[in-house]
Amino acid sequence: MSEQDTYPVLSDFDRAYFLGIGGIGMSALARYFKQLGWDVAGYDKTETALTLQLQEEGIDVHYTDLDASIPELYQDKNRTIVIITPAVPVKLGELLYFQHNDFTIQKRSEVLGMITRTSMGIGVAGTHGKTTTSTMLAHILNESELKCTAFLGGISTNFKSNLLISSTSDFTVIEADEFDRSFLRLKPFASIITSTDPDHLDIYGDADHFKEGFELYAGLTSKNGVLVQRYGLDLASNAKNVTYGINESKADYFGENVRAEDGKFLMDVHTPTGIWKSVEIGIPGIHNAENALACIALCTFLHLEETEIRHGLRTFLGVKRRFEYQVKSQNLTYIDDYAHHPTEIQAFLSSVKMMYPNQKITGVFQPHLFSRTRDFFDGFAKELSALDEVILLPIYPAREEPIDGITSDALLEKITSSHKSCLLPQDVIELLSQQTEGVFVTIGAGDIDRIVEPLKRAWS
User: Does the pLDDT value for residue 330 go beyond 50?
Assistant: First the structure.
């Protein structure tokens, strides 16, 4: 069977039905098809700000399982493609209807794979940093003559969306997600791989199989393209191989003298053709400096000029919930971040400490998944102990059932900070809203974002 026979062709359809439409990746695809002029509808179990935005954009969203009572417009299986997320229950009535009636059903990653087969796809993969890096890359390209279409795993502050569409560019930037081995369905022209630290061990089993997934992804990159990877990953590919790293003098692109200066975040960049002094990055953080190096390497391969790349990096405003300033006053600073792995927490907190070296830092962390908390228990305890005060929320379960002995209280016992506690969200809001000075951070990938606005209102 040929590749063309294996995959459906998007041009065969003119309407899309989403199961799990409220997800950050799914909603980007829904917006994409809507802007193509398709009819778009979908189900999600919960109404959110994002699903309400989709409805305002003319997309039909509902929150009750319709079973077989699918809207008539989407009952034509020859014209409707059904797109699902792995989080959708296998017994969902609507899913069973589509399965029993032989509709074309594709995972989100499979649809992205279809798109990369008809454009020059640029995949950004990695345990950490892929959302910020892909959004940063999309912004640089969008500010240049090359332009791009982009499907992002977060809300870009520049675009105010998780989707960017260009009618003139051949390039499509895609966040290549390792969860459920989704990125192995892509066919990238070029790739960035930021990290391969073990995660999702409930799916991969162990660190070796997790690393193997990235090795397979690296091998998918076109031989005519480029594989940009952080120095030391040593992933093989038939594509041109380019490495990058902070203070890694053997890397093809390396940054040094990373610093905050007069309110600007700067670094010096060594490239194969010379040194770029004082490159300004629009958002702070050592990890963001490293993300910028990856973008510099890839954009240089695409023949962008230094001035274009510098402009894109300087004007990049970041991604919602990635080192996102919520309050920045003379006495009090509040930053929200999506970090949910020990390595991400370490990178985030080290950057906060660099920006605010002499101030007390209080952090609120919500562990995400029982299995991840179990697998990286000691790592979480070590990194969170760097905070002057630690507040833990109960573990966010997402798709999982509780695991004996894995609780926020158990994690708190391992944390060495002298000031630490476990609280419920409302108690956190009441406690912290009384504070008038210091640096405060909220960290996590669950529903901790629900306390962000109340804290912001209290401190603004």
Answer: yes
Interval 263-278: pLDDT, tens: 789 999 999 999 999 9
In this prediction, residues 102-114 reach a mean pLDDT of 92
Residue with tokens 């002029």: 37
Is the separation of the CB atoms in 316 and 158 below 8 Å? yes
The β-bridge relationship of strands 149-156 and 161-164 is: antiparallel
On whether the CB atoms of residues 408 and 422 are closer than 8 A, the answer is yes
CA–CA distances in Å: residue 440 to residues 14, 25, 356, 388, 426: 48, 29, 11, 10, 16
User: Which one-letter amino acid corresponds to residue 97?
Assistant: Y
Rounded Cα distance, 427 and 424, in Å: 5
The separation between the first and the last C-alpha atoms of the chain, rounded to the nearest angstrom, is: 61
- DSSP track, 440-458: EEEEESSSGGGGHHHHHHH
Residue 406 sits in which domain range?
324-459
Query: How many other CB atoms are found less than 10 A from the CB of residue 210?
Result: 19
Residues near 295 by beta carbon (within 8 Å), at least 6 away in sequence:
133, 136, 137, 140, 192, 309, 312, 313
Alpha helices in 76-189 (DSSP H): 93-100, 108-116, 130-143
Query: What gap in Å lies between CA 120 and CA 204, rounded to an integer?
Result: 29
CB 313, CB 136: distance < 8 Å: yes
What mean pLDDT is predicted for residues 389-398?
95
Residues 424-436 have pLDDT tens digits of: 999 999 999 999 9
Does an H or E element contain 271, and which? strand 264-271
Judgement on whether residues 347 and 301 belong to the same structural domain of the protein: no
**Two structure tokens written together for 45:** 């179990």
CATH number of the domain to which 360 belongs: 3.90.190.20
Contact indicator for 286, 129 with CB cutoff of 8 Å: no
Q: Are residues 167 and 279 in the same domain?
A: yes
